[in-house]
Amino acid sequence: MQVKISDVVVTGFALFAMFFGAGNVIFPPYLGMTSGTEWLTGFLCFIFIDVFLSCIGIFTIVYGGGGIKALESVVGKIPGMILNVAAVLCTGVLIAPPRTAATTFEMSIAPFTDKISLFVFSIIFFGIVFAFTIRPTRFVDIIGKFLTPVLIICTFILIIAGILSPIGEIAAPVSQTVAEDGIIAGYQTMDILVVSGFGLVMLNTLRLKGYVERKSQIKAIIGVCIVAGILLSLIYGGLAYLGATSSIVLGNNNLNQAQLIVAITNHLMGHTGMVILGIIVGFACLTTAVGLIGSTACFFEDFTNKKIKYPVWVVINTLISISLCNLGLTTIINVAVPILTTICPPFMITVLLLLFRNQIKNTLVYKGIALVAFLYGLISTIQSYM
Question: 83: buried, middle or exposed (CB in 10 Å: 19+, 13-18, 0-12)?
Fold first, then answer.
């Protein structure tokens, strides 16, 4: 089947929006602020971990035939199952969906009114997510055709405003570990961990569009990843630059990640900018929550051999997300750090090794490298708390 450019663009837009969620809005500006004049170094490390590895991961998952089958083919059934389930639980259930709603509340609702509580908002937010997600055949096209264009336009308006009228001069870095900060920020977005679920969704979407031959699927997913990767890199670079230009003016205000992007936007564009930021955050978090809950439901339906159907998983995930969301954004971020720094390395290296499964036949190689990566992540996590 001939690959259609329109299919690639719409699906690429959807993949971009599914990746571009809560952490993707708040972490690059903060990284830019703490990196100062070395913001490009931090940004490149962030891009490598987040964009490059995630897009490669999507490709390898699709190339391997789907999330569950792909990992199990190189590390074995039980290790592959553990890696898959751990990654999907973190990204699709316990951390990322609640964080999307908490971030939207803190940045799109709280600055404008105190009449809506986080609990009430979480019900409204995940009610909308549920409505978009409950039918698995439609949510990718809804994201790609309708939600993503609004998200892209609003984000570029903010970035262009910051480029044309910078907040201030870029100061020397306040962090002594700029490269490490970029890597950790890349982990915090959790994009590398969603490749199993997102890869499965991309594969199902391509099949529904008529790409049933393996060759056409591979060609299409390459184009999809390129579209998503370019958009993510451009927007991350712009947001990191905005953070770098704020390092003198806002760097000493002890702002957290969400508060910093709010302060930057207010400084650049005032009330109009705050409205635009509210739209950016709302749409970014909504599209990601839809993608996460939908892909997680697809994954667990596949994992249970369709014994528990997709809609049931959507309901379960939505209810859990509402409950955890009310812990608040700061608590969710703090809890996420040790979990992600432990899980990301083995999952990430295993996904990358899928590229070489035709060259490396011995599964002990994959298991050994994954084990070393897990121990490295575990030791790094323990050391960070000593």
Answer: buried
**Crossing angle between the packed helical segments 67-75 and 257-303, to the nearest 10 degrees:** 80
What domain range includes position 192? 5-384
Torsion sign, CA atoms 20, 21, 26, 27: negative
- 25-41: per-residue pLDDT in tens? 889 999 999 999 999 99
Best mean pLDDT range from 222-236, 273-287, 335-349, 367-381: 222-236
- Into how many domains does the chain fold? 1
- C-alpha distances in angstroms, 371 versus 80, 157, 189, 357? 12, 45, 23, 17
166: left (phi over 0), alpha (psi -120 to 50) or beta: beta
DSSP 3-state assignment of 134? coil
Report yes or no on whether pTM surpasses 0.90: no
Tell me the CATH number at 48. 1.20.1740.10
Other CB atoms within 10 Å distance of the CB of residue 37: 14
